[in-house]
Amino acid sequence: RFAKCCNPLPGDGILGFITRGRGLTVHARECLTVAQSVLDRERLIPVEWDVEDSVKRPVRVAVYIGADRPGLLSEITGAISSRNGNITKAEVTVSPDRRGTNNFVIEVANLKQLEAIMGAIRAVPDVVNVERIRGA
Q1: Phi, psi of 109, rounded to the nearest 5 degrees
Q2: How far is 114 from 124, CA to CA, in rounded Å?
Q3: Which neighbouring-strand residues pair with 27?
């Protein structure tokens, strides 16, 4: 069972945690829950990805816009689809000064695909930054 706090993808470093009553949960190594030593270290176990697993997983991505303009959203979504990402949710917010934040949930197979998608989005003119958002 994958922890919602960090939503790991194949390619992310991961750790297993034996819970009380719920079995094993899998966390990304960078997970704040793990990093803050909230978890009992004695219940951490090494785990690795099943290389045969081809399940697409949802990932939240924030795209920060320096200057909104006609066609920008189309270019961003085109960058996502050009790397075979599937958008399952989108929220676009533009401030009065024409800056904006676009939040997407994108289905991806692994970290390599996510990095390719984020690189393609960064190449779109007027995109200031792109970041993966961890957590529920």
Answers
A1: -85, -30
A2: 16
A3: 15
Over the chain (136 residues), the average pLDDT of each successive run of 10 is: 73 80 79 66 77 82 96 97 97 95 95 96 98 82
What single-letter amino acid sits at 128?
V
What secondary structure does DSSP assign to 10-66, as a single string? BTB-EEEEE-SSS-EEEEETT-HHHHTT-S-GGGEEE----TT----EEEEEEEEES
* C-alpha span between 27 and 134 (Å, rounded): 11
**Separation between Cα atoms, residue 66 and residue 3, nearest integer Å:** 33
Q: How far apart are CA 66 and CA 126, in angstroms?
A: 5
Look at residues 129, 124, 131 and name the one whose alpha carbon lies nearest to residue 106: 131
* pLDDT given for residue 127 in this prediction: 98
